[in-house]
Amino acid sequence: MKYHIVKYICLLTAIVVGLAFSGMFHVNAEAKQADDSRMETILARGSLRCAYVVYPPFITKNTASGKISGFAVDLAESIGAKLNLKIDWVEEVGWATMIEGIRTGRYDAVCTNIWQNANRAKFVSFTEPFGWSTVHAWVKRDRADLASRADIERAGTRIMAQEGTSEERMARTQFTGAKITTLPELASYTDLFMNLTSGKVDTVFVESAVAQQFMANNPGSIRAATAGAPLMTFANVLLLPQGEPALKMALDTALQEIVNGGELSLLMKKHKLGGFFEPARPAYMAQSTR
Fold first, then answer.
1. Which candidate, 3, 122, 127, 179, has a CA 20 to 30 Å from the CA of 80?
2. What are the mean pLDDT values of the chain's consecutive 10-residue runs (290 residues total)?
3. What single string gives the DSSP state of each residue in 118-161?
């Protein structure tokens, strides 16, 4: 009888241990699948599905053909080449709607330059920064009364920004005495500048690279009221889903190669990006290029 009891206890112990190990392996397998599922799907598909925001000079869309081009397009294609992935440009989105598509899985990344901020970080992840943008308050060139941030902060100043953007959020939180109006998120930045040059608003908050493109086409029309110091500086990143470390690692590594290999500098020169700044290089790299 005693032998049977011992045998029963040993058998029960073996079953419990087996179930424990089985559960542990099952949990580990699920964890690995959760970590790698998006990247594994991308590799199996052979393509990275990118959404994009039309945002000249970073992304421009030909209205006749629907074809997109620009700095961000070339950057994404370079990332794809390094990862041996095709870039599928699957959906045009707006600043206020791009996060929803990432969270529901309609695309793998937003491949326009996106500004990293805390509000977006609550819902999505980012690559490491691959560049820096400055934002200024732009005014008509003949507005001598608007020559500094203090002038812009005066009560009643008419500020315009694009809806759903970091510029709008900054205007509403930091310039509380101003009269703030917005254009729809899919409106062009040319529309902002036309409102400015026609006198409908006093200033627009826009990234320097975008404003400099407008000035190249409309010389002598506008200037930066905050030329001495930008209103804000933003890190440029790509937008990714949260909880996908393998995808983030792959894109970060490709971007690092593009920056360190000098390809980013060539793309900036090709697209004449004024007011857009590369990540800082190690001191020895900076000295070697002098």
1. 122
2. 49 49 43 64 97 93 94 98 98 92 96 93 97 95 93 94 90 93 88 96 94 92 89 95 96 97 95 88 54
3. HHHHTT-EEPPP-EEEEEEEEEETT-TT--SHHHHTSTT-EEEE
